[in-house]
């Protein structure tokens, strides 16, 4: 079974490079179809959330390093456990507002 799988994979990728055609700079090949695809635009709320995410992410990384040097790994796990339990309880406070 493994030999059959190996043969099928080998046959799928055995196309020689000589048979491939490369586009030359003189060819007028469009890089993309302008009528299809994703829109490339950023609104102000996109930029706001990207910047907030960057600030929070940097704060978490620097905060973890600071806590780890001051209290060690036990203090880090204990702190995350306490804050995690507070956040877990807070989600039940805001649960009625979501429904």
TrEMBL record:
**Entry's Gene Ontology molecular function annotations:** amino acid transmembrane transporter activity
User: Could you tell me the membrane topology recorded for this protein?
Assistant: Multi-pass membrane protein
Cross-referenced Pfam families: AA_permease
Q: Name one GO cellular component term.
A: membrane
User: Which Gene3D superfamilies does the entry mention?
Assistant: Amino acid/polyamine transporter I
Q: Give the stretches traversing the membrane.
A: 47-68, 74-95
Please give the residue ranges the record annotates as the region Disordered: 1-36
Instruction: Please give the PANTHER family that the UniProt record associates with this protein.
Output: AAT FAMILY AMINO ACID TRANSPORTER (PTHR43341:SF20), AMINO ACID PERMEASE (PTHR43341)
Its protein name is Amino acid permease/ SLC12A domain-containing protein
Which species does this protein come from?
A: Dactylonectria estremocensis
């Amino acid at each position: 079974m493994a030999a059959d799988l190996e043969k099928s994979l080998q046959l799928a990728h055995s196309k020689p490079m000589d048979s491939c055609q490369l586009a030359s700079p003189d060819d007028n090949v469009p890089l993309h179809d302008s009528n299809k695809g994703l829109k490339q635009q950023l609104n102000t709320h996109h930029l706001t959330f990207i910047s907030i995410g960057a600030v929070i992410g940097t704060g978490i990384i620097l905060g973890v390093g600071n806590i780890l040097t001051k209290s060690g790994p036990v203090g880090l796990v204990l702190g995350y456990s306490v804050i995690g339990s507070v956040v877990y309880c807070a989600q039940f406070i805001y649960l009625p507002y979501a429904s």
